[in-house]
Amino acid sequence: MIETTAPTALRTAATARGLTKTYGVGTHAEVHALRGVDLDLPAGRFTAIMGPSGSGKSTLMHCLAGLDQPTAGTVEVAGVALESLDDTALTKFRRDHVGFVFQSFNLLPMLTAGQNILLPLELAGRKVRREERARFEMVVDVLGLADRTGHLPSQLSGGQQQRVAIARALVAQPAIVFADEPTGNLDSTASAEVLDFLRHSVRELGQTVVMVTHELDAAAYADDVLVIADGAIRNHLTTPTRDELVAALRHRAA
User: Fold this and answer.
1) pLDDT (tens digit, 9 = 90+) per residue, 125-140?
2) What is the reported pTM?
3) How many angstroms separate the CA atoms of 99 and 176, rounded?
4) Ordered domains of the chain (ranges, CATH)
């Protein structure tokens, strides 16, 4: 097993208190996407956030990642209160401390896989010295990309492209990686492959991963599963079985 190098000293990678998000103006126009959410995301674990469309799961992730501002409440990531940062500082914080993996791979087609992976370091103005090169090699090895770094995205399968996106999210050693429906554009074989590698990044790199999904099979890879409905967390399960997930979702719907 590769030695863990990601930061895991914090007991929690992110916390939220009283998190509320309301869209629209006026009583009849308002949509309450989040309703006073409190949560602690443990460091060095794989957490899935489940719920149907419109439940608030993506809004929750966007607020936790600093991509959207809550209407009320507080968010703290890696010990930093996001509400204390102005737009410039928040952008820099996301660049330096948060990794993102989205449903669409968002790779630059003119860059090789290796260049796409190293792009966050380049954008941060960080030279690829020995430590950064070692991290790069470790990540591509864990993700099975060592023989694909010279390929363009068009020369890679969907699963390989998503693995490149995951490597890009991991290479700068972020405090937390947010994955929003990362298998939504993949077939079942590629989905299992990508989820395996997200799981590896937690076990072998000590990474903290938070994944939004509506898929039972995807959530089953997580250490912790939060079930959200109507803007509130209804269940918190630890290493759940598929049957436990089904029961929790049925209870939510009841």
Assistant:
1) 777 778 888 889 988 8
2) 0.86
3) 6
4) 44-55+87-253 (3.40.50.300)
